[in-house]
Design brief:
By secondary structure, the protein is an alpha+beta fold. The chain folds into three domains: 68 residues, no CATH class; 34 residues, no CATH class; 60 residues, no CATH class. Helix content is 45%, strand content 16%. It has six helices and five strands. The protein has a five-stranded antiparallel sheet, with helices on both faces. Strand 2 and strand 3 form a beta hairpin.
Length: 181
């Protein structure tokens, strides 16, 4: 069992039902206890919770026509930096290629990689989960804060959630005495 939520989206390659179309059709979170929250994208968005990921896939996977794309398996969001890294890696291959050929090869690699995760959609899914799962003023406040954060992420602004993640990163990246955090 994982100790933190894991983000994904459902990528529909073939629309068997003719309802939701193809491409990214839902954003999801797999919670540390194994439960799953899906937020459907489209004209009639909705949120649904599952006890297990396998159950969600059994209903919405359409025998492989829809697949799970994990956010933590995505390339860095900065595709220009990723292109440079690929170009440099190709340059280390023991034969000489002009830089324009290395860039073209890097572009070919990038063309087959999935798009980066949508952070705002993930934060909105978390807000929906809080609002749908818990009640009370604190839950409304937490969900509202998450929705405000999602708006700020979409506008390219720093939000409270990202500030918290930045503040926590040094503690996670620098374990003391060789211990894992």
């Amino acid at each position: 069992m994982t100790t933190s939520p894991r983000l994904f989206h459902l990528q529909r390659d073939h629309d068997i039902s003719g309802v939701s179309g193809t491409g990214r059709v839902a954003d999801g979170v797999q919670w540390p206890d194994g439960t799953v929250t899906l937020r459907w994208i489209g004209d009639r968005p909705s949120t649904v919770h599952w006890d297990r990921l396998d159950d969600a896939v059994a209903i919405h996977g359409h025998s492989g026509a829809t697949r799970i794309v994990w956010a933590d398996e995505q390339p860095p969001a900065d595709r220009a930096a990723l292109r440079d890294r690929i170009t440099n890696a190709i340059g280390r291959i023991p034969f000489v290629l002009p830089i324009e050929h290395r860039r073209k090869a890097a572009d070919e690699v990038l063309a087959v990689l999935p798009e980066p995760a949508d952070q705002a959609a993930l934060v909105r899914a978390c807000a929906s989960f809080v609002r749908d799962t818990y009640s009370g003023e604190w839950a409304d406040d937490a969900a509202s804060t998450l929705e405000t954060d999602a708006d700020q992420i979409e506008q390219g602004e720093q939000c409270s959630l990202l500030r918290l993640a930045d503040a926590m990163r040094p503690a996670v990246e620098a374990p003391q005495d060789g211990a894992r955090p």
